[in-house]
Design goal:
With 214 residues, the chain is mainly α. The protein has 2 domains: 94 residues, Endonuclease Iii, domain 2, CATH 1.10.1670.10; 102 residues, Hypothetical protein, domain 2 (Endonuclease III, domain 1). Helix content is 58%, strand content 0%. It contains 12 helices and no strands. The longest helix has 19 residues. The two termini are 27 Å apart.
Length: 214
């Protein structure tokens, strides 16, 4: 359980980031829950920019869950090839399409339990879909940026996304759970990069434990 000092530190860091990134939000482009789910699956090990390029065409060809379920062998793979790991992603999308048709009348469910029961859907994806498509916040989406910055900011030492999520949920007020991920993602992309973090001039550098311990 997080201590009062740890919570205060986390809230101070996140409050500063909210001032710097007031418009932080999901970068994936979508118009409905199915598109949000598909885009999130495709975003694994791929940039949001590339996913948006692919889905601009993909979403015109695949409009329903059944379209993904019934995609001919090799066709869906070719359509998403440039997102990387296309064989596995295509397998997941076909499985998701079939599960949605068979269990949910072709619609994307709006509960964590039902979403994580879909092929290839873990809590990160479910949190993203729930928050962006349904306005439901049950947890915190932990991607590579969120994990990296959480460790650098000394929110946690964990590597496992599920453990990081539990720590962050104890540190952040619930009203920050949804936007908090995007604050860290924007900061991770723009300043606190993986290989060469821009500590000099960082907007939270004066209160970041990583900077103080260098």
């Amino acid at each position: 359980m997080a201590t009062k000092v740890q919570r205060e530190h986390a809230e101070q860091m996140m409050s500063r980031l909210q001032e710097v990134y007031p418009k932080a939000s999901v970068a994936l482009e979508f118009t409905n829950p199915l598109e949000m789910l598909v885009a999130t699956v495709l975003s694994a090990q791929c940039t949001d920019k590339k996913v948006n390029e692919v889905t601009a065409v993909l979403f015109k060809r695949y409009r329903t869950a059944a379209d993904y379920a019934n995609a001919p062998p090799g066709v869906l793979e070719e359509d998403i090839h440039s997102t990387g790991f296309f064989n596995q992603k295509a397998k997941h999308l076909r499985g998701i399409g079939s599960a949605l048709v068979e269990r949910h009348g072709g619609e994307v469910p709006c509960t964590m339990e039902e979403l994580v029961a879909l092929p290839g859907v873990a809590r990160k994806t479910a949190n993203i879909v729930l928050g962006n498509s349904f306005g439901i916040v049950e947890g915190i989406a932990v991607d590579t940026h969120v994990g990296r910055l959480s460790r650098r900011m000394r929110f946690t030492r964990h590597e496992d996304p599920a453990k990081i999520e539990r720590v962050l949920m104890s540190l952040w007020p619930r009203e920050l759970w949804f936007k908090g991920s995007y604050l860290l993602i924007d900061h991770g992309r723009g300043v606190c990069k993986a290989r060469k973090p821009g500590c000099p001039g960082c907007p939270v550098g004066d209160i970041c434990p990583r900077v103080g311990l260098r």
